[in-house]
């Protein structure tokens, strides 16, 4: 039995008092001192971990004013704060052991769009892709690009002066900032925009903090102009953070935003921003150049720079190899053919954009003419061309995912960010990288590289096991070498991702100018309360150091290796935050989108799991051993102990906070498919629940859900009685709502009417080879067979109509509900027995197919985990098998299309299978479009549980509600997930057909029937 993990006593009484006073003064947002929230916000996308003492989630600008004014009071002089947006920083910019101010939860409104003036006004918590989605109908976009654009906030982009792909054409974030609304350290709300001399004089005359800032910054710039020009290098990725070099614009106006952009929250709290936006390019093309080596790609980039390209990006062979193991590769593989049997060792992506197709094609033609004439010069192997937004977008998605893909390298040593955004003059990049690689090679370190060669920025991530003793010393040694190299080549350590913890190198880089930066900090923040230790520290303060801040690896080092291996699905989360995607039409991550609570995300749950394991280790508890013991049938003694623990339950057990986060997971598996690290929440969640309920009794609904599959055939014998009991609220007695209703159809009778027999291995073995080829075995699942029987019958009719003899596998529980609720011992035993039965059928050589995506995919995921090393039978999704058997060479049909909303598990973990529905429809002369969509919110039994129902409906409203409202009653909107069809029926009263029902009905009118190929392709 796991021990009770008492919550760490709250020693930060000052922070508790601060939060209480904030609330008393009308703070409208949320305040949290829970250990779960503090644990989750202790990390970002860096190697560091600092646990805050409290978190504030302001709802409006006035909440930021309340925070600043309270900080200014003497009794709270020791409080330190750090603003936080998407938490995607790679250098610990938003980490603090004080108060986190998170603007992303509530302050995420787009306040105004002026398409004529091409400006937009937003709150700091607006996500970059969210903004561009709102701008797209106006033909506009916010240009600065970055790989984390689906979760990075505008406030965070301004705070780090973010930029990425295309910066040579579009510049950095600060180049698009017209005005900022910032809360200064005395609570003054300051609206900063370029000032002429009269405006500057008026600002300097103010008696508040704003006046003091303008007087001091203006003086510092004028008195140190020569030194500033000397110490700020003239790079595309120029030195940001207190950028005195650009405080005076070309027209002479004074622009305080040059100092605020890149200031990482050290000078004030950004509330709003007015930005300039640009027309969307209407045409684009991407030339994909392959090379024999990465060095050749780097050196050739200089020759390509004169091509007029909007951007030139490079990717090395390490990243390409990782991409090939990710679902993103399916959409881009054709652009990376092998050359003489070898994969490219380096790639340059050269993009052209324009307002006319002719202009773009002319630019592409000029480049390709040079390439064709040069042949294999400069190590080039060949090129491909992508055209149009969709195709080019797929390649850029692959490039964006490179950031996360590097973290998915196998083994304990994973590529990490700490010297990943160096910038040097582009003409020196290849030589700089050669020496950089030499420094890593001398230490025997592997690494991956990608970046913006046109800007001289390359992302280099060395693979280090941060849990190994001495890892921090290695980080220090590598960083010192890289700092020296950047200075040798006239570059910067911080070219793109800000300074954060790496601010310790500010004095070395700025030299005699550093005291001027200290004076800037003192003018804005005289008590050093705003994100102290970063960029510049006042004379009495100190900068953070790269080996002086606790690391995630250092915390994980306390977890025994056996526990790390057993819970590997959580331990390798690197914090990249892909699970924080704002996009409601992406499957990842429904519980995050439905709650906006970061603990209800894969990253949050992984962080909580790591902390839970660390605390267990402190108490000498061995989770893997306890899990093995718990899978032995529990007796009365175990039950009695759990009953006593449950009845005497105390709230001061950290396990309860972890359980609250785990219980909110829909087990949809979007994380396992869409997280670049493949953080697998459903698996480690099940392991957690197994141990948690080894101490505390389960709710009755867990047992009811676990019993549903084995009881389904018995309940189906009395459907009217069971359905009547359901309507009278039998499910609510155990915490279930909207319990499913039995179809009432006698499956045996319908099978007999169609001549469909149960799949007996002996009978199947007697079939001739031709008969086996014309047969298929349908593996039943509880929900389709007993609750949505018409869909199963439609599949049987479709197969018969295609000339295929269907067999029905004897009904066996699949076990998915057992796994979801952590009955892992029972699940392993059931999976072993079920796999043996299916093995016997598969041995006859006849294919196995399943209808429901979630249940069918269990055979290739959860079964594989439960039965490691075993050769499991292949159960294919129905469309996977049909697409391989139907002649796919038919022309594109005409007519009105059908539309499919796929199951989120299928969309996330079997993307190719989703596309195969369209192939099957085309083979039968029908058109099918796949609609972008997230999760419906049901996800198996999640939406049936009373405590989840409100969140379930909220998730449905984010993505599914609109297409169902628009197309749900036309008969042309389809859904292949049983839970999805149930949700639409419950909320909107619409029954969405399954694709096989449409295909069955269409086949009955088609003459002749589509041709079958002789063997699966």
General description of the model:
The model has no long low-confidence stretch (mean pLDDT 92). Helices cover 42% and strands 12% of the residues. It folds into three domains: 1-280, Uridine Diphospho-n-acetylenolpyruvylglucosamine Reductase, domain 3 (2-Layer Sandwich), CATH 3.30.465.10; 558-697, no CATH class; 705-1003, no CATH class. The chain is globular, with a radius of gyration of 30 Å. Strands 12, 13, 14, 15, 16, 17, 18 and 19 form an eight-stranded antiparallel sheet that branches. Strands 5-6-10-8-9 form a five-stranded antiparallel sheet. It has 1017 residues and is α/β, with parallel strands linked by helices. The chain has 46 helices and 26 strands.
Summarize it.
The protein is of the alpha/beta class and 1017 residues long. Helix content is 42%, strand content 12%.
- Please provide the count of β strands: 26
Largest sheet: 8 strands, antiparallel
**Radius of gyration, CA atoms, in whole angstroms:** 30 Å
Q: Helical content, roughly?
A: 40-55%
The structural domain count equals: 3
Mean pLDDT across residues: 92
Shape, principal axes of CA atoms:
globular
Proportion in β-strands: 5-15%
Give unreliable regions as ranges.
none
Q: Helix/strand-derived class?
A: alpha/beta
The number of helical elements comes to 46
In whole angstroms, the N-to-C terminal distance is: 51 Å
């Amino acid at each position: 039995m796991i021990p009770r993990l008492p919550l760490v006593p709250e020693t930060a009484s000052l922070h508790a008092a601060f939060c209480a006073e904030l609330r008393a003064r009308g703070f409208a947002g949320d305040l949290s001192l829970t250990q779960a929230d503090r644990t989750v916000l202790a990390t970002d996308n860096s190697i560091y971990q600092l646990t805050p003492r409290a978190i504030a989630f302001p709802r409006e600008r006035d909440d930021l004013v309340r925070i600043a004014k309270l900080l200014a009071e003497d009794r709270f002089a020791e409080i330190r704060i750090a603003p936080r947006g998407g938490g995607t920083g790679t250098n610990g910019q938003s980490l603090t052991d004080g108060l986190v101010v998170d603007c992303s939860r509530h302050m995420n409104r787009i306040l105004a769009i002026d398409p004529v003036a091409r400006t937009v006004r937003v709150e700091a918590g607006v996500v970059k892709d969210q903004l561009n989605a709102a701008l797209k109908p106006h033909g506009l976009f916010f240009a600065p690009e970055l790989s984390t654009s689906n979760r990075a906030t505008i406030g965070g982009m301004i705070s780090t002066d973010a930029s990425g792909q295309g910066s040579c054409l579009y510049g950095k974030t600060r180049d698009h900032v017209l005005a900022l609304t910032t809360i200064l350290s005395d609570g003054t709300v300051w609206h900063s925009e370029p000032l002429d001399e009269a405006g500057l004089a008026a600002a300097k005359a103010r008696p508040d903090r704003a006046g003091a800032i303008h007087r001091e910054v203006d003086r510092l710039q004028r008195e140190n102009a020569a030194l500033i020009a000397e110490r700020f290098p003239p790079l595309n990725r120029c030195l940001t953070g207190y950028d005195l070099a650009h405080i005076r614009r070309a027209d002479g106006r004074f622009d305080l935003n040059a100092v605020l952009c890149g200031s990482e929250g050290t000078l004030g709290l950004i509330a709003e921003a007015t930005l300039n936006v640009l027309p969307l390019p209407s045409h684009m093309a991407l030339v994909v150049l392959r090379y024999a080596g990465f060095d050749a790609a780097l050196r050739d980039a200089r020759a390509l720079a004169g091509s007029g390209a909007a951007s030139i990006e490079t990717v090395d062979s390490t990243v390409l190899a990782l991409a090939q193991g990710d679902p993103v590769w399916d959409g881009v593989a054709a652009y990376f053919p092998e050359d003489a049997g070898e994969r490219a060792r380096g790639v340059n992506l050269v993009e052209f954009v324009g307002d006319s197709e002719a202009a773009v094609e002319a630019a592409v033609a000029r480049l390709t003419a040079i390439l064709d004439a040069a042949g294999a010069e400069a190590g080039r192997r060949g090129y491909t061309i992508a055209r149009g937004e969709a195709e080019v977008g797929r390649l850029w998605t692959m490039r964006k995912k490179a950031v996360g893909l590097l973290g998915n390298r196998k083994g304990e040593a994973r590529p990490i960010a700490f010297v990943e955004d160096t910038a040097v003059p582009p003409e020196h990049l290849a030589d700089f990288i050669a020496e950089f690689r030499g420094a890593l090679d001398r230490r025997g370190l592997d690494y991956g590289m990608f970046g913006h060669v046109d800007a001289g920025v390359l992302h280099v991530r060395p693979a280090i096991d941060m849990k190994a003793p001495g890892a921090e010393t290695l980080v220090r040694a590598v960083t010192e070498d890289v700092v020296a190299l950047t200075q040798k080549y006239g570059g910067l350590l911080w070219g793109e991702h800000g300074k954060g913890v790496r601010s310790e190198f500010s004095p070395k880089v700025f030299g005699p100018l550093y005291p001027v930066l200290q004076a800037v900090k003192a003018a804005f923040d005289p008590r050093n309360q705003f994100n102290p230790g970063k960029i510049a520290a006042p004379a009495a303060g100190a900068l953070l150091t790269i080996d002086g801040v606790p690391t995630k690896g250092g915390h994980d080092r306390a977890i025994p290796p056996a526990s790390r291996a057993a819970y590997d699905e959580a331990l390798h989360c690197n914090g990249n935050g892909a699970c924080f995607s704002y996009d409601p039409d992406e499957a990842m991550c429904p519980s995050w989108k439905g709650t906006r609570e970061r603990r209800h995300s894969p990253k949050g749950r992984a962080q909580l799991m790591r902390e839970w394991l660390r605390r267990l280790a402190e108490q000498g508890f061995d989770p893997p051993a306890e899990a093995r013991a718990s899978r032995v049938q529990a007796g009365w003694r175990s039950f009695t102990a759990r009953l006593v623990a449950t009845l005497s339950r105390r709230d001061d057990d950290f396990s309860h906070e972890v359980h609250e986060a785990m219980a909110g997971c829909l087990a949809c598996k979007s994380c396992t498919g869409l997280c670049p690290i493949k953080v697998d929440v459903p698996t480690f969640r099940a392991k957690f629940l197994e141990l948690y309920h080894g101490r505390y009794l389960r709710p009755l609904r867990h047992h009811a859900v676990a019993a549903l599959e084995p009881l389904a055939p018995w309940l189906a014998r009395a459907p009217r009685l069971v359905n009547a009991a359901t309507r009278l609220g039998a499910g609510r007695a155990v915490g279930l709502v909207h319990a499913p209703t039995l179809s009432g159809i006698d499956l045996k009778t319908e099978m007999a009417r169609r001549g469909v027999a149960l799949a007996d291995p002996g009978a199947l073995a007697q079939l001739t080879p031709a008969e086996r080829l014309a047969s298929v075995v349908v593996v039943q699942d509880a929900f389709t067979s007993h609750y949505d029987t018409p869909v199963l019958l439609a599949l049987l009719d479709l197969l018969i109509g295609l000339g295929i003899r269907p067999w029905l596998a004897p009904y066996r529980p699949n076990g998915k509900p057992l796994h979801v609720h952590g009955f892992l011992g029972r699940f392993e035993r059931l999976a072993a027995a079920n796999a043996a039965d299916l093995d016997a059928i598969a041995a006859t050589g006849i294919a196995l197919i399943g209808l429901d995506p979630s249940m069918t995919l269990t055979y290739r995921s959860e079964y594989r985990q439960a039965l490691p090393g075993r050769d499991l039978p292949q159960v294919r999704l129905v469309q996977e098998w049909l697409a391989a058997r139907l002649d796919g060479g038919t022309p594109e049909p005409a007519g009105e299309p059908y539309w499919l909303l796929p199951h989120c598990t299928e969309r996330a973990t079997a993307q190719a299978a989703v596309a195969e529905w369209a192939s099957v429809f085309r083979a039968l002369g029908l058109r099918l479009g796949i609609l972008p969509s997230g999760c419906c919110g049901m996800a198996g039994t999640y939406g049936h549980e009373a405590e989840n129902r409100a969140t379930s409906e909220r998730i449905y409203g984010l993505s599914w509600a609109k297409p169902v409202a628009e197309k749900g009653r036309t008969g042309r909107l389809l859904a292949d997930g049983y839970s999805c069809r149930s949700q639409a029926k419950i909320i909107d009263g619409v029954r969405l057909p399954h694709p096989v029902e449409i295909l069955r009905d269409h086949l009955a009118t088609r003459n002749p029937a589509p041709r079958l190929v002789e063997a699966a392709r």
